[in-house]
Amino acid sequence: MYDVTVKTGFAAAHQLRLYDGKYENLHGHNWTAQVTVEADELDNIGVGMDFVKLKERVKKILDRLDYHNINEVPPFDKENPSAENIARWLFLELKNQINTKSIRMKRVEICEMEGCGASYFE
Q1: What is the per-residue pLDDT for 23?
Q2: Which long-range contacts (C-beta less than 8 Å, at least 24 apart) are formed by 51-60?
Q3: Does the predicted TM-score (pTM) go above 0.85?
Q4: For a Cys staple, 106 with which of 22, 38, 93, 110, CB 3.0–4.6 Å?
Q5: Exposed, middle or buried, 10 (CB in 10 Å: 0-12/13-18/19+)?
Q6: How is the chain classified by DSSP, letter by letter?
Q7: Which pLDDT score, from 0 to 100, does residue 87 have?
Q8: Measured between alpha carbons, how far is 75 from 80 in angstroms, rounded to an integer?
Q9: pLDDT, tens digit (0-9, with 9 covering 90-100), for 35-88
Q10: What is the pLDDT, as a whole number, of residue 25?
């Protein structure tokens, strides 16, 4: 079993609905996203999943959030744009694209700032 991990980032604003405190106000972060897939075996050149292709898929999805108010981007126009919900959303979007018989999504971690983040996995 092999894990393949990529890390990338995006800049976006959000506000946490119903949060009792200053984070209910619109504020921004330089977010990071770390994505890990699991491969049962390596291909003929010794790769579980190509880093470049994985990172391109992650970036394409996160571009929907980059330099936006996340609260205005579906599904976060209705769902609270917490790090936990963003991690789950990214995981499920990637799962639909990546999962095969031998490659599976394993974990997505979203960090709002250094030392503060949330992960989603199944």
Answers
A1: 73
A2: 51/4, 51/6, 54/4, 54/6, 54/98, 55/6, 55/8, 57/94, 57/97, 57/98, 58/6, 58/8, 58/33, 58/90, 58/94, 59/8
A3: yes
A4: 38
A5: buried
A6: -EEEEEEEEEEEEE--TT-SSGGGS-EEEEEEEEEEEEESS--TTS-SS-HHHHHHHHHHHHTTTTTSBGGGSTTTTTS---HHHHHHHHHHHHHHHH--SSEEEEEEEEEEETTEEEEE--
A7: 98
A8: 9
A9: 999 999 999 999 999 999 999 999 999 999 999 999 999 999 999 999 999 999
A10: 85
Distance CA 121, CA 106 (A): 6
In angstroms, the CA 86 to CA 118 distance is: 9
